[in-house]
Design brief:
The chain has 246 residues and is an all-alpha fold. Helices cover 74% and strands 0% of the residues. The protein is built from eleven helices and no strands. The chain is elongated. It starts with a helix and ends with a helix.
């Protein structure tokens, strides 16, 4: 009788999961993941589940930012004049040169968008390099544990990959010329202290900061929103993490 009950339970769970997959609803999967006792995930499941989630989140952020207006249209990460050049911008706008300032802002954001797609293989390599200890520390760590891991492991590689692309793009879209025009005109204004800001370094750093900002959002989403856990494996792994944190 005990064996029959066990078999019946397995059949019921399997049938329910198949229905969820056929329905194709993340909300349905979320509800089922909560209602079913999926048990404690094995190390292999934790490893696969977390890496699956991180690869999806990092790829999604990279893809989204590489599209037109990925940076320019996102107020949270839009690249504007560097702090040391704010006075340059306000002065030039007051002199009727606002369109030139706008061209600079548009062009530096286009450069960041050109570089963003290059982040994906760097993140994938970092994910593949994770040990099971790294995976568990991230899963049971703070809400931005994965983002911090990526920052520690990929920032140098991202800088090396982003900067030449951004320098090339800045030239291609005219940002270098616009920037030279802006700084040149500003430096000719009487009584103004001449300024020289490294545009490519600034844009590279801001592009990377924006990328990590978006990854942190994706990480928080899957940690806090059960509906974002779109597979049974993710339900099981992050459901386990939820219980550990409660």
């Amino acid at each position: 009788m005990k064996s029959e009950n066990s078999t019946f339970k397995k059949i019921s769970i399997t049938f329910t999961l198949v229905c969820a997959l056929l329905l194709g609803s993340c909300d349905t999967l979320s509800q089922l993941g909560s209602s079913l006792n999926l048990g404690t995930p094995t190390d292999s499941e934790i490893n696969s589940g977390l890496k699956q989630a991180l690869e999806y989140g990092a790829s999604y952020a990279s893809d989204r930012l590489s599209k037109e207006d990925g940076y320019l249209g996102n107020l949270a990460i839009k690249i504007v004049f560097p702090e040391e050049a704010k006075k340059v911008e306000s002065t030039l706008r007051s002199l009727g040169l606002g369109s030139l300032c706008d061209q600079v802002i548009t062009s530096v954001n286009r450069a960041a968008e050109d570089a963003a797609i290059e982040a994906k293989p760097i993140f994938v390599a970092a994910i593949k390099d994770m040990s099971i200890a790294d995976v568990k520390n991230i899963l049971l760590g703070s809400d931005n544990a994965a983002t911090k891991y990526f920052q520690n492991k990929t920032t140098t590689s991202l800088e090396g990959k982003f900067k030449p692309i951004i320098e090339s793009s800045l030239t291609k879209v005219g940002a270098t010329r616009y920037w030279s025009d802006v700084i040149g005109r500003y430096n000719k204004i009487p009584l103004m202290t001449p300024i020289e800001a490294d545009l490519s370094n600034f844009v590279t750093q801001k592009a990377i900061d924006g990328l990590f900002y978006e990854i942190a959002k994706e990480e928080l989403k899957i940690r806090e929103n059960a509906a974002a856990r779109s597979t049974i494996l993710l339900q099981k792994v992050f459901g386990y993490a939820d219980k550990q944190g409660s």
